Amino acid sequence: MARILAIFAFVLAAIAADQQTPPRAPDGHPDLQGIWSNATITPLERPSDLAGKQTLTPEEATVYEKQVVDRNNVDNNRKEKTERDVALAYNEVWYDRGTKVVTSRRTSLIVDPADGMIPALTPEAQKRVQETQTWIAEHATDGPEERSLAERCLVWRTAGPPMLPGPYNNNFQILQTRDQVVIFSEMIHDARVIPLGGSPHLASNMRQWIGDSRGHWERDTLVVDTTNFSGKYSLRGSDQNLRLTERFTRVSPDTLLYEFAVDDPTAFTRPWTVQIPVTKSQGPIYEYACHEGNYAMVDILAGARAAEKKTAK
Amino acid sequence: MLSRWATLFGAVLLLAPGPLPGATPPGAARVSAPQKWTPPRTPDGQPDLEGVWTNPTLTPLERPAEFASKEFLTEQEAADYVKRVLQRVNSDRRDGGTQVDVDRSYNEFWRDRGNDLVADRRTSLIVDPPDGRVPPLTPEARKRLEERRAWIEEHATDGPEGRSLGERCISWAPAGPPMLPGPYNNQLQIVQGPGYVAILNEMIHDVRVIPLDGRPHVAQQIRQMRGDPRGHWEGSTLVVDTTNFSGEASFRGSDANLHLTERFTRVSPEVIQYEFTVDDPTAFTKPWTARIPLNKTSERIYEYACHEGNYALMDILAGARAAEKKK
Q1: Which value does ipTM take for this structure?
Q2: At CA A147, angle to CA A144 and CA A149, rounded to 5?
Q3: 3-state DSSP assignment of residue B314
Q4: Which residues of A touch B194 (CB under 8 A)?
Q5: Which of A25, A49, A171, B238 lies at a C-alpha separation of 20 to 30 Å from A114?
Q6: d(CA B120, CA B122)
Q7: How far is B224 from chain A (nearest CA, A)?
Q8: Which residues pair with A264 in a beta bridge?
Q9: Would you call B19 helix, strand, or coil by DSSP?
C-alpha cells in the first residue's frame, strides 16, 4: 500500500512538474510566442491505400516519406511531354512542403472521425457545392469572380483559419499578451488580433471572410473560437454557420500542438477534428507578395478572350 | 520623459518664429497640464501602448502657402480654416455640374478624414524644418522622380504597372510606414507581447511584427516594400527604426536608402504622440520630422477589402484599350 501511495505521489509530482514545463509569459500563461512552421507531408485525409491504418511504424514512415518526397519533386519528373514540362516551371525552388510526416506518424491530420476522413456533407451542402462546381465549370473564365479566391489574392485556404500546411509559406508567428493574441500568417500576410477578455462575438449580421475570433485559456491551452464567417471562403464545403474551435498547447520547447474542430451542422453530417504538431521555426518571416509581378489572372482571362475570338472565326 | 517632452514642446513654442502675440496655443497648456500622469505598464513592464488608435486630422502634412511663416493658428483662424476645408472637400455638394457630380460619387459616407486640426493648431504635421515643408529633393532624386513621372505620363494605361501601388492593392501610402492620416481607414491597433510589438493598420490590413530584442537588421541585400523594422525603448518612448526599404513604395520621393525613425510616446490615457523622422540623404537635402497625435478609440477594426468588388483597375485599362481602338 505504501508503495502504491509512493508511486501515486511520484506520478502526481511528475504531472505537476510537467505542468511547469512550458515557458511562461509574464502573466503566467504558457508562452506560445515565436515563429512556428506547420510544414508536413502528412495529408489532411488518410490516403485510400492506408485505409484502416491509423499510424505508421517508424520504418513505414521512412519509406512513405521517401515515396512522397520523390513523387512531389517536380524537378525529378521531367520525362513528361513539353507542355507538361512547362507546367512544372513552378519548381522545387518555391516549395517548402516539408519532408517528414508528423511526429505522431499518424496517416492523416484528421484524428476524428477515426477513419481520418472528412465526414460526409449534408444533402443541402452537397447540392450547394455541386451547383457551384457546375457553375464554375461553365463560367471559369468569364471574369475574375470565377477564379479561386487565392488566384484573386483575397484569401488563401492554408492561411486559415484554420491554418493548414500548404506547398509553401508554412510559417505563422504568435504574439501574446494578457488581453490578446496575434496570429500572423506568412501566407497572404493576414493577421488575426484575438481578444482574450471574454468579450462576446460580433453581432450575428456582421460577417467576415476569416470570421470573428475570440480566445480564452483552458488551463495551459489557448482556445480560439471563431464564428461570424461570411461563408464566401469555404473550408471543404463549410458555410457561414461554421463554428471553428482552435486549441494551441505548447507540449515541448519546440512543439506546439495545434488542434482544430470544425462544427458546421448545415455543411457536415458530424463535427471533425484535426491535430498538427507544429514546430518552432527560426524565421524571420519575410514580406509576402501576391499580386506583385503576378500576371496569372490577367493572362488566364486574356487567354480565354483570345480563344473565344478564334472560335468565333 | 513626459515632462522632458513637455519642456521641449514649450521650448519649441518659445522659439517658434514670429507667431502673433495672441497665437500661443491653449493646446500646449492642455498637453502639459497633467504632468503627473505616467503611462500604465504591460505585465512584462513595457509602457502600455496597447489599443486601437486613430489619427484623422484636417491638419495637412505640409504647411499651406497661405500660412507661410505661421506655425500655429489662433482659435478663430483655426475655426475659419476648418470651415473652409470641410466645404472644399465635401463630396456631398451637388453644385459642380454633371461631371464633378459623378466624380463626387465616392462621397462623405466613405470618408473618415476628421473634422478638426491637431490640438495645438499647428499649421502642418511637419515640425522640422520650421517652415513645415518637406525639404527639397536632391538633384539626383529630382531627376529620378521626373523620369518616373514622364514614364507614367506616357505609359499610365499600358498595363497595371503604370498604375499606383494603391490602385494595385500592393501598398497604401497612409498605411506606411510612416503612418499618416488618410481619407478613411485611419485606425491602427497596437499589441505588445514580450519582446515584440505588432502594429496592425486598418488600411490594407498590413501588420508589422517588430522585434524589440536588439537583433540586427536583416542583411543589406534583403529589401522589402515596407522595410525591416527594429524597436527599442528610450524611457517611455517606443522607438522603431526601419531600414532595408526596396524603394518601390516611395514616400514623397524617398528611395532604398530611407532610414525611418518612428517614436511612440503615450502622453495621456487618450493620446499617443507619434513622431517620425525621415532621413534619406540620397533623396532629401536634409532630414525632416512630422508629429501626429494618435487618439484612443473604442471602435474596433473590421476586415479590410481592397480588390474585392473593385473593378477600377480593370475598367481603367479596358477603357484605355477601347479608346485606342476608336483611334
Answers
A1: 0.73
A2: 100
A3: helix
A4: 25-26, 31, 33, 176
A5: A171
A6: 5
A7: 6
A8: none
A9: coil
Q: Which residues contact B11 (CB under 8 A, 6 or more apart)?
A: none
A154 to chain B, any CB pair closer than 8 A? The answer is: yes
Q: Does A213 touch chain B (CB under 8 A)?
A: no
- Chain A residue closest in CA terms to B307: A154
Burial class (CB in 10 A: 0-12, 13-18, 19+), A136: middle
A241 within a domain of the structure (yes/no) = yes
Cell of A250: 505548447
Give the domain extent around A233: 35-40+109-299
Report whether A148 contacts A260 (CB < 8 A): no
Of chain B residues 157-196, which have a CB less than 8 A from chain A? Answer: 160, 168-170, 189, 191-196
* C-alpha–C-alpha distance, residues A30 and A219, integer Å: 9
Q: How close is the nearest chain A Cα to the Cα of B25, in Å?
A: 38
For residue A261 the three cell numbers come to 474542430
Residue pair B169/B306 in contact (Cβ under 8 Å)? The answer is yes
- Tell me how far apart the alpha carbons of residues A298 and A310 are, in angstroms, rounded to a whole number: 18
In tens digits, chain A (313 residues) has pLDDT values of 455 555 555 444 444 444 457 889 888 999 999 999 999 999 999 999 999 999 999 999 999 999 999 988 888 767 667 887 787 888 888 898 899 999 999 999 999 999 999 999 999 999 999 999 999 889 999 988 888 888 888 889 899 899 999 999 999 999 999 999 999 999 999 999 999 988 999 999 999 999 999 999 999 999 999 999 999 889 999 999 999 999 999 999 999 999 999 999 999 999 999 999 999 998 899 999 888 878 888 889 999 999 999 998 7
What DSSP assignment string belongs to B237-283? EEEEEEE-B-SSS-STT--TT-EEEEEEEEEETTEEEEEEEEE-TTT
For residue A171, being part of any structural domain is answered with yes
Cβ contact A42:A69 at 8 Å: no
Number of domains in chain A: 1
The amino acid that residue B317 corresponds to is L
Position of cell 465635401?
B90
Distance CA B60, CA B117 (A): 9
Which domains are assigned to chain B?
36-58+126-326 (2.40.128.20)
Please list every residue in chain A whose beta carbon sits closer than 8 Å to the beta carbon of residue B200.
182, 191, 193
Q: Give CA–CA dist A71/B215, Å, rounded.
A: 40
In a domain, A229, yes or no: yes
- Chain A residues within 8 A of B195 when measuring between CB atoms: 33
Domain membership of residue A4 (yes or no) is: no
CB-closest option in B169, B198, B205 to A182: B198
Mutation to test the A interface, candidates B307, B316, B317, B321, most A Cβ within 10 Å: B307
How close B320 comes to chain A (CA, Å)? Answer: 15
